[in-house]
Amino acid sequence: MAISILTSMFHNDFPIKFAERLNEIIVNRKNFVFIASEFNDFQEINDRYFKLFLSKFQNAGIRFYGCCIVDNRMTKEEAQRVVKDGDVIWISGGDTPTQFKYLKEYGLDKVLTNHNGVIIGMSAGAINMAKIAVCTTTCDHHQQEIYRALGLVDISVEPHFDYTHVTDELLELSNDYCIYGLCDGAAIICKDGDVELLGDIFILDEHAVKQISS
């Protein structure tokens, strides 16, 4: 059974509690796989973020034997193989619908839904891990877009949530979807039906906002 972790953004090192939980959760540390959000362009940016987040793991005391980036420098077959064999999969941030398009094009959606390791989604990656991806203009998407995503978790999230500025868009959407507002530095860990909350997290439901973790 996979362990799914949804995050927003980490501007500095991983928070202490999150780093401690990662050390407990990530037992197998052979292969780390970083799935980009844009496969065909921005390879230098992909490389930079790959190194940035790998350094956060290292600063948390977690080192991997092998590491790789999935973008168009791999064939579809290679990408499927490395994701299947990865102990920890990091689904990066970026443009959410674009990332999902590449996941489907490369056949990674099926590989991820059958994965038994640790899958961590950040921002766009976290949105795409949900059964229903809710992409809002509040979260800087070009337009509001809602679609059936990977279905790794039943939780729909709004990354980079600002509880001091809850938009009308989010309140209206909360009438139809229960949305978890993830502040930067927060994380949701899903394992065997259990949900663990770390950091500042809010729930938007039926036109109301409530803090459920701090």
TrEMBL record:
Gene3D superfamilies (alphabetical): 3.40.50.880
The keyword Hydrolase belongs to this UniProt entry's keyword annotation: yes
Ribosomal protein keyword on record: no
Keywords for the protein's UniProt record, in alphabetical order: Hydrolase, Protease, Serine protease
GO BP terms, alphabetized: proteolysis
Molecular function as annotated in GO: serine-type peptidase activity
Family assignment from sequence similarity: Belongs to the peptidase S51 family.
Protein name: Dipeptidase E
Organism: Lacrimispora xylanisolvens
